[in-house]
Amino acid sequence: MIDQNWIRQNVEQLTDKLEAHGPRLPGRDTLRRLLQDSLSRLDMVSQDDYDRLLEIHQRTRQKVEALSQRVEALEARLNASDAASESVPASGERESE
Known about the structure:
Blueprint: H1 4-20, H2 28-41, H3 47-87
InterPro entries: UbiK
Organism: Terasakiispira papahanaumokuakeensis
Protein name: Ubiquinone biosynthesis accessory factor UbiK
């Protein structure tokens, strides 16, 4: 979660930039509180946390793909084994001549 200092710093930067384009904003404190309240309600994560979660997701996806390939290979072997056992006549049966 983003800490309050980050929110406070960004709100200050925004209001300072707005103020640089004109005289002191009427309601500047109200705007600051509104921005701060709005940003603090957002469910945000830091870039570091996002990058870590992205790495975890990528590793998990690779593992899932590897497991999927293994399952497909095992199913192919099982199907080949079933097909081979069906083509061999059972003992006691005679092939027609």
